[in-house]
Amino acid sequence: MKVTFYGTRGSIPTPGETTVKYGGNTACVLIEADNKKLIFDAGTGIKKLGEELALNNEPITIILSHNHWDHIQGFPFFIPAYQKNRPINIYSAPTQPVEHNAILEQMDMSTFPVPSKDLTADINVIPLMNEFKNMMINGLCVSAIKINHPNGGLAYKVSHKNKVVAYVTDNEIHSKDNLNTDFDSWVAFLTDVDCLVHDAQYTDLEMPLKLGWGHSSIDQAIKLAKAAKIKVLILYSHAPERTDKELDKFISDMQLDDLQIIASQEGKTHEV
Ligand SMILES: [Zn+2]
């Protein structure tokens, strides 16, 4: 399996000289196996991916964790959405309130010049109603579990042959306000996972001011990865203020014998 990062940043795009290395685009990850592709989230990183996908006419599958702006805001700039009859299936997570068409409706007000009804692709929004196990989506086996995040949403794992990759973003592992999945349930969900992409927006020092915001600290993500006996942890959803230098330092300070820790980097592909 291959995991490629097109957007690694949480909350808001952060271009600038301090984010050149790890990237400033918001959430978008491509998971591939045997030429089958699943796109997770449609933050601003999906624009670049769209340029690549526009070179052919294969069906496209997008799976959304939730509808916050940093997970849908790139879609109006996703070139395949403007390709005539291009099949695009969008799996939309349950949120509170339930708004499965939010990714399209963001184009339907005064905020974007092209209304979603003018998109010429064959776009099909498929509502996901709850957690699920082993659903075949575009030829890959996907399971989902609820995230601990304001307005809710889902995390996913993708299995192919004997490898498993999990995409867990916007998740406050020890949430008091939005606890849908407790620590033990996370460990159980992740126990067969080889490579975990997990929200690690904050440091432990920053965390007390961010309680209830729906994100985890780097150390909390590491503790979960160790409890689930993960081999590779990829830190994701970097805080907008987080600089390349800080991420480099965190990573060099943190290497453990039994767990490889990587900071997600825009444009980088990881083989699992
Ligand atoms: Zn969010």
Structure characterization notes:
- Helices cover 16% and strands 28% of the residues.
- It contains six helices and 14 strands.
- The strands form two sheets. It has a seven-stranded mixed β-sheet, covered by helices on one side. It has a seven-stranded mixed β-sheet with strand order 7-8-9-10-11-12-13.
- Helix 3 links the parallel strand 5 and strand 6.
- The chain is globular and about 50 Å long.
- The protein starts with a strand and ends with a strand.
- The relative contact order is 0.17.
- The mean pLDDT is 97.
What are the main properties of this structure?
single chain; 272 residues; alpha/beta; seven-stranded mixed beta sheet; 6 helices; 14 strands; 16% helix; binds zinc ion
Structure classification = alpha/beta
Shape: globular
**How many angstroms does the end-to-end distance come to?**
5 Å
The sequence of SSEs as H and E is EEEHEHEHEEEEEHEHEHEE
Bound molecules: zinc ion
Low-confidence stretches: none
Largest sheet: 7 strands, mixed
Topology summary:
Layout lengths: L1 E6 L20 E6 L2 E5 L5 H8 L6 E4 L5 H4 L14 E6 L9 H4 L16 E6 L4 E6 L2 E7 L7 E7 L2 E6 L14 H8 L4 E5 L18 H10 L4 E5 L7 H10 L6 E4 L5 E3 L1
Parallel strand pairs: 3-4, 4-5, 5-6, 10-11, 11-12, 12-13
Antiparallel strand pairs: 1-2, 1-14, 2-3, 7-8, 8-9, 9-10
Bound molecules: zinc ion.
Zinc ion (ZN) binds next to loops.
